[in-house]
Amino acid sequence: MRKTITAALLALSLPTLALAMPEGGPRHGGEHQMRMFHELDLSKAQQREMRKLMDEQMKNRHAITQRYLDKLPAAERKAMQDELQAAKQQQHSAMRALLKPEQRKAFDEQLKKREERRAEREAFKAWQDEQAKKAE
Question: Where are the alpha helices (DSSP H) in 72-100?
Answer without folding.
Answer: 74-97
